[in-house]
Every structure is written in C-alpha cells, then in structure tokens.
C-alpha cells in the first residue's frame, strides 16, 4: 500500500510564507502583530517551547513579548499580569504556557485572557465557539490537525474518527472540530475499557494521550489515517510509529508532524487578531468640523 507521510514542515512553511506578506502589509499600515507569551517557573521544556514560539514570531517579522514570572508567583499576581496584557493595545495575542506550577489556578488564569486575544484557544468561551462551529481562534493543536487534514485532502465526512484523549486544549476541541466536519467521532480517555477494539474501527486516529509510543500497531485498521499530537521527552510521539506506519495509509511523524503546524497556527491566529485590530481602528468615526 502506498504510504503518505503527512509532513508538517511543508504545511507550516506554506502557512508562514503567506503570513510574511500579511505581516508586511500590517506594518505598512502601522500595526506590528505582537504575541505576548507568559511563562511561570523554570520548567526546561516549557522554556524551550516559549523560546521557539518567540523565535518563530521574529522570523516572519512579528513582535513577541516574553513575560517570565518566578515559580512562586501567586494566581492573583498572574491574573494582574494577564489583565495588563489584555489592556495593552500593542498586544494582539496572549499565550500562557501550559502547565503552570500546581499551586496556580490554571483554569482561572486561562479564563482571564480576553477572548479577542485568546489566540491559543484556551478560554471556555473560545472552546464553546469552536464547538458550535463559529470560533475565531480554535485551540492551536486541534486547528493544526485539521489544517494537515485539509492540506493533504483527507476525507473526513462520514468517516469514523477516534480521538484518544479528552483534555480541554486538545482531545475535546479536536473531537468537536472533526464532528463539525461531519465525521462520526468517538472520544476515548483513561476510563475507556475497550480502547484497542474501538481503535480497530477507526478510519482516522488522533493520538493525544501524553504517553510515549502508547498506540500500538495492531490497534490500527489497515489503511487508517493516523495523526499523532503527542510530544514526549526525546521527541517521541504517542503512537508506536514504526508499527503504526505499517498499517496506516497516511501518518504524521514526530517530530515534524503536528508540532510545526501548531506553531504556524499560533502565528496565523495572532496575525488575524492584528488584522481585526486594524479593521476596528479604521472603523473609528472620523469627526470633521462643520
Ligand atoms: P493531558 O492533559 O495529560 O491529557 C491526556 C489525555 O489522555 C487525558 O484525557 C487522559 O484521560 C487520556 N489518557 C491518559 N491515559 C490514557 C489511557 N491509558 N487510555 C486512554 N486515554 C488516556 O495531555 P494533553 O495536554 O492533551 O497532551 C497530550 C499530548 O499532546 C502530550 O504528548 C503533549 O505533549 C502533546 N501536545 C502536543 C502539542 C503540539 O504542539 N504537538 C500541543 C499540546 C500537547 P483522562 O481525561 O481520563 O485523564
């Protein structure tokens, strides 16, 4: 069977080329798209992710502001920082790097991000809009998975999609997006009792578990499309790649699959926020003297 490697770098490159032109056009109109990232504590992986996102902004001409708060930051202190960024007219998108230290109320912090700056799609309002099919900024990894599906012309309508994982930023929103595209969706989680049996019926598999090499090759139906959102220590995905490759008709590698498209999606949604900001400014009524 012919295999299709779903190359996220190719998808991301095309997205970023398009964004460069849009950033230039915004700058000519006096608006520089700006993403603010907030990192709390010193988790090395989180530091790397935040740095990668900041560098990605710079490479396409965007601005990024990095707010790095100490480990002992309280929820209240974090909320104050978020509010400040909400009220900063030069900031178009806010990303709070997940996870925050366990003493912080992460949900409360996410909910404090203004919806028009929630370019990472973490607020409950953003999730609700995504689920209802009119969300401006879906959560980035789910949106990236849908972008890969669209880019490679993978048929979704009428297919059985099985999502393994139900987190608010990944499993649940990607299930909603697949449902909006008329897939029949099954969402599995840690209490699912017959995971292998369910996966064997899947035309499309989305792995969002957070466990290295978790999805086994003999759980995959011959010819299924396999999308691996997992990103574990040592650049290892949530699927057993070599074994799943044998069965799949199309598959995302790790690294170089969903990850680069997630970052490109974050940039795209920040640029869209800046474009909306510019349109709103131009809509301000012009007062002329009589
Ligand atoms: P998470 O919040 O830890 O959620 C993991 C989900 O997997 C939960 O819903 C959990 O079920 C489920 N699960 C755990 N063990 C299971 C089992 N034995 N069988 C079935 N389901 C099981 O993780 P996340 O934030 O969604 O991230 C998932 C993965 O995606 C991680 O590898 C993460 O690094 C990666 N990720 C990648 C990107 C990217 O840009 N590529 C972005 C975000 C996340 P319960 O709900 O029952 O606990």
From TrEMBL:
It comes from Bacillus carboniphilus. Catalyzes the oxidation of 5,10-methylenetetrahydrofolate to 5,10-methenyltetrahydrofolate and then the hydrolysis of 5,10-methenyltetrahydrofolate to 10-formyltetrahydrofolate. Coiled coil: none annotated. Homodimer. Residues 139-276 form the Tetrahydrofolate dehydrogenase/cyclohydrolase NAD(P)-binding domain. Residues 6-120 form the Tetrahydrofolate dehydrogenase/cyclohydrolase catalytic domain. This is Bifunctional protein FolD. The keyword Oxidoreductase applies. It comes from the Bacteria. Pathway: One-carbon metabolism; tetrahydrofolate interconversion. Signal peptide: none annotated. The keyword Cytoplasm does not apply. Belongs to the tetrahydrofolate dehydrogenase/cyclohydrolase family. NADP(+) binds at residues 165-167. It catalyses: (6R)-5,10-methylene-5,6,7,8-tetrahydrofolate + NADP(+) = (6R)-5,10-methenyltetrahydrofolate + NADPH; (6R)-5,10-methenyltetrahydrofolate + H2O = (6R)-10-formyltetrahydrofolate + H(+). Keywords: Amino-acid biosynthesis, Histidine biosynthesis, Hydrolase, Methionine biosynthesis, Multifunctional enzyme, NADP, One-carbon metabolism, Oxidoreductase, Purine biosynthesis. Its EC number is 1.5.1.5, 3.5.4.9.
